[in-house]
Amino acid sequence: MSTHLPAEVLDALRRMGLVGAVEIPAATALTGGVASDIWRIDSAGGAFCVKRALARLKVAAEWLAPVERNVFEVAWFRAARAEVPSAVPELLGHDPEAGLFAMAWLDPSSHRLWKADLAAGVADPAVAWAVGDRLGRIHAGTAARPELAADFATDAIFHAIRLEPYLEAAARAHPDRAEVLTALVARTAATRWCLVHGDVSPKNIQIGPDGPVLLDAECAWWGDPAFDVAFCLNHLLLKTLWVPNAASDLLASFDALWMAYRSRVDWEPVDAVDARVASLLPGLFLARVDGKSPVEYLTNEADRDRVRQMARAWLASPFDRLADLRADWTREIGG
Q1: CA separation (Å) from 279 to 5, 169, 177?
Q2: Are residues 89 and 178 in the same domain?
Q3: Residue 5 and residue 39 in contact, taking contact as beta carbons nearer than 8 Å
Q4: Any idea what DSSP says for residue 203?
Q5: CB-based contacts of 216: which residues, under 8 Å, 6+ apart?
Q6: Is 318 left (phi over 0), alpha (psi -120 to 50) or beta?
Q7: In terms of C-beta density within 10 A (0-12 exposed, 13-18 middle, 19 or more buried), how is residue 306 classed?
Q8: Whole-angstrom Cα distance, residue 272 to residue 257?
Q9: What burial class does residue 119 get, using C-beta atoms within 10 Å of its C-beta: 0-12 exposed, 13-18 middle, 19+ buried?
């Protein structure tokens, strides 16, 4: 919806030279995210997007997060662009004091939101393959640049907006699974291989003419690549309940993403990544119904209970191969 920009945001745009000294550009508040204010700006020079991090996220439970994560999001975009230039939007300006940055506007007519495609039952394994390939290239490329680790010492931020609201919150909701969930938190926090995006979700991926574009990297962290893979694959499994008529294509997309990704793993044995993804995914599966950020599309309590039951079983008897977990879920939904 059309809105007036806060004065401090307009001042920042002027400092960055993106709008004129006396220009009052048209602004449209964009919806869909919980962690930031986002606007489309229509200035004399054209359309672009502005993002400002929030200290308190827009969810029912109290969820606080450091606003300086904005700095690391910009740094992630720059590092990822060095590996796969077309995988991220072009940065137009950054004002760290204002806690915001500007990036190119990706027109929805040419950049479809992957989540919207999936919601409509369009689950193309070729798209999932491209997502897995790009994610694998970014992980492999940054793993080969260990000097980047010093630029992403964001353990506290990653804990505040990923480990605590997902795995630790799920542990509080399921005390009899707290030990294994706490162990997953500890292992993830201690594993350091490459630059992690932290929110690889279909809602943060647009499918453009040059392939998938990854957005919303404010969870950027130097750590365990298995988190990114598990986080995205988790959504593909959950969506088999949301869009059951597309379940077979969603499962094929699950396979395609993983196969493309694993072909890029060269920083450690691929079986080690496989085992960490397979054991982490159940915790995230449970967290998306009983953590601080439950998926909004599972509104049927029977579906939510189905997720709980399977996640709890997987946590009690973990798999060390992703294929085994996938097969078990396929049997559960009758796929």
Answers
A1: 44, 17, 13
A2: no
A3: yes
A4: G
A5: 33, 35, 36, 73, 199, 204
A6: beta
A7: middle
A8: 17
A9: middle
Query: Are residues 51 and 103 in contact, defined by beta-carbon separation less than 8 angstroms?
Result: yes
Please give the C-alpha separations between residue 267 and each of 78, 79, 281, in angstroms, as whole numbers: 21, 17, 21
For 113-131, what is the mean pLDDT? 98
Read off the pLDDT band of 70 (50, 70, 90).
confident
Structural domain boundaries enclosing 153:
112-333
In the chain, the number of structural domains is 2
Strand-pair category, 112-113 with 205-208: antiparallel
Say which residues have a Cβ less than 8 Å from residue 29's Cβ, sequence separation at least 6: 1, 3, 37, 38, 39
Burial grade of 66 (CB within 10 A; 0-12, 13-18, 19 or more): middle
Domain boundary among 76, 104, 132: 104
pTM of the model: 0.92
Q: Choose the final residue of a domain: 75, 104, 133.
A: 104
Q: Are residues 194 and 313 in the same domain?
A: yes
Q: Are residues 169 and 77 in the same domain?
A: no
Question: What are phi and psi for residue 124, nearest 5 degrees?
Answer: -95, 115
pLDDT tens column, 226-269: 999 999 999 999 999 999 999 999 999 999 999 999 999 999 99
- Report the run of H or E that residue 213 belongs to, with start and end: strand 211-214
Distance CA 83, CA 138 (A): 6
Do 154 and 208 reside in the same domain of the chain? yes
Residues 266 and 194: beta-carbon distance below 8 Å: no
**In terms of domains, do 37 and 137 share one?**
no
Same structural domain, 20 and 120: no
**Together in a domain, 81 and 117:** no
